[in-house]
TrEMBL record:
<keyword id="KW-0732">Signal</keyword>
<protein>
    <recommendedName>
        <fullName>Malate dehydrogenase</fullName>
    </recommendedName>
</protein>
<feature type="signal peptide">
    <location>
        <begin position="1"/>
        <end position="18"/>
    </location>
</feature>
<dbReference type="InterPro" id="IPR021851">
    <property type="entry name" value="DUF3455"/>
</dbReference>
<dbReference type="Pfam" id="PF11937">
    <property type="entry name" value="DUF3455"/>
</dbReference>
């Protein structure tokens, strides 16, 4: 419980890092950090992302800007899953599962840049059996959950799985098309180092939620360099920012 309390404190306090710490409890500053954990937070009505941009590294051409508008900014908290290939003795990806917080109201805050670091510290410190969804629901003050990220069968019928962002049970409940299944168009090793999963750009192959999805600011998620034959599947905790454009 200590970890959750601390995580909740982070959600309240993170954007205050660049400003004097607000008094605890109400009032909620308009445009301020407490929106992240307010039940009434609505990224569409409270925090326009119409002119928001994504900061891509300038020394690369793998990830490219899109001319469409940012619709959602999410903080993903979850695990990258791997199985051991007993021939190559390396871990291969078997997908990922993550819960996406709505951080749209934080995009213009100075502390947005370090959100993933604090979140990753809290996530890695949370007790082993806890899922991201449990972590979020235990925050008490009901942060807005955008939806879930997970993998589904490739819609083309080809072998393998495809990443999906599914907001049909949360921020877009009732809209059965509020999802996007993506195909990777860009894959950049994380600028922060080999233990962080790659930054990605994906295009829509199915669903109405977005035309382009980015995964950036990753922390963690990479498997050990090798495995031994018969090693069980593993889950590696990670955090990332997800930006959905349409
Ligand atoms: C976005 O930019 C346009 C053009 O500069 C401006 O008219 C509009 O008010 C801006 N919208 C928001 C929400 O900032
Ligand atoms: C991946 O991990 C999640 C828990 O984080 C689990 O629910 C899911 O079943 C795992 N998926 C695979 C393919 O191992
Ligand atoms: C496992 O590794 C072998 C040898 O590198 C490779 O041929 C095979 O495609 C891998 N299997 C999977 C499922 O990636
Ligand atoms: C690109 O810039 C980032 C910092 O923004 C740096 O960490 C990275 O090493 C650079 N990559 C290359 C290939 O120069
Ligand atoms: C936290 C917050 O400011 N929530 C507001 C979001 O916008 C709606 C109206 O669109 C208000 O009712 C909420 O209070």
């Amino acid at each position: 419980m200590l970890a959750f309390a601390t995580f909740a404190t982070f959600l309240l306090a993170a954007p205050a890092l660049a400003a004097p710490l607000a008094p605890s409890g109400p009032p909620i500053t308009p445009g301020g950090p407490a929106k992240l954990i307010s039940p009434s937070t609505n990224c569409r009505t409270n925090c326009s992302l119409a002119n928001a941009t994504i900061a891509l590294p300038t020394n690369q051409t793998v990830l490219t800007a899109t001319t469409t508008a940012m619709k959602f900014a999410g903080l993903g908290v979850g695990t990258q899953n791997y199985t051991c290939n007993s021939t190559s003795l390396t871990y291969i990806s078997s997908g990922a599962v993550a819960e996406l917080f709505d951080v749209s109201c934080l995009v213009s805050q100075p502390s947005f840049a370090s959100l993933q670091d604090t979140a990753f510290t809290m996530w890695t410190a949370s007790p082993a059996p806890e899922t991201p969804a449990a972590l979020i629901t235990k925050l008490g003050t009901s942060p807005t959950v955008l939806g879930q990220h997970y993998f589904v069968a490739n819609p083309s019928g080809a072998a393998g799985t495809s990443p999906k962002w599914d907001f049909t049970s949360n921020v877009d409940a009732g809209n059965t098309n509020a999802f996007v299944i993506g195909a990777k168009t860009g894959d950049l090793p994380a600028p922060t180092g080999a233990s962080d999963v790659d930054w990605l750009q994906l295009k829509n192959v199915e669903g109405d939620l977005a035309t382009t999805v980015y995964r950036t600011d990753t922390r963690g998620g990479q498997p050990p360099a090798s495995c031994t034959a018969g090693s069980p599947a593993i889950e590696v905790k990670y955090v990332a920012k997800y930006f959905l454009f349409k």
